[in-house]
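Try this one yourself first.
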């Protein structure tokens, strides 16, 4: 796998990633409470295929690592890995990977009344208005984010 770094704080991974191979891990058959604790049960009977769960269209999917902080309020942090699907049609409020004037960025897409903007999810960063003069291309829709809690 080869890393390709871009000026805009995104690190693209290229090369062979076999998304057609199953990647199964154990999954609890019971939901975990995010509110009040529930009695612990030892139910790890199921399996979850991470590739099938995270990647819906393998030929159109790529991964990219984030190093900037413009999307932290959307839950996208530095060093997170984004899973991006190029086959999806962009909808209002989707988080996308875009090329703007030759540089890549990750932002929330906003399209209202023929006005298009890329919205930063951090008040320290400016939103980007897309005009007819902007060299703009959508590379894909972010479908999932992978980040760890333990450093």
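Now uncover the answer:
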């Amino acid at each position: 796998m080869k890393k390709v770094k871009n000026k805009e704080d995104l690190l693209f991974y290229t090369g062979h990633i076999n998304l057609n191979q199953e990647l199964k891990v154990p999954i609890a058959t019971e939901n975990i409470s995010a509110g009040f604790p529930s009695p612990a049960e030892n139910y790890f009977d199921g399996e979850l295929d991470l590739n099938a769960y995270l990647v819906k269209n393998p030929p159109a999917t790529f991964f990219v690592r984030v190093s900037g902080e413009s999307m932290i309020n959307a839950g996208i942090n530095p060093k997170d890995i984004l899973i991006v699907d190029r086959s999806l049609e962009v909808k209002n409020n989707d988080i996308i990977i875009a090329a703007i004037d030759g540089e890549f960025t990750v932002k929330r897409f906003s399209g209202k009344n023929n006005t298009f903007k890329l919205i930063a999810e951090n008040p320290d960063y400016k939103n980007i208005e897309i005009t007819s003069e902007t060299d703009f291309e959508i590379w894909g829709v972010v479908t999932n984010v992978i980040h760890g809690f333990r450093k």
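Discussion: DSSP finds one helix and eleven strands in the chain. Residues 50-54 form the longest helix (5 residues).
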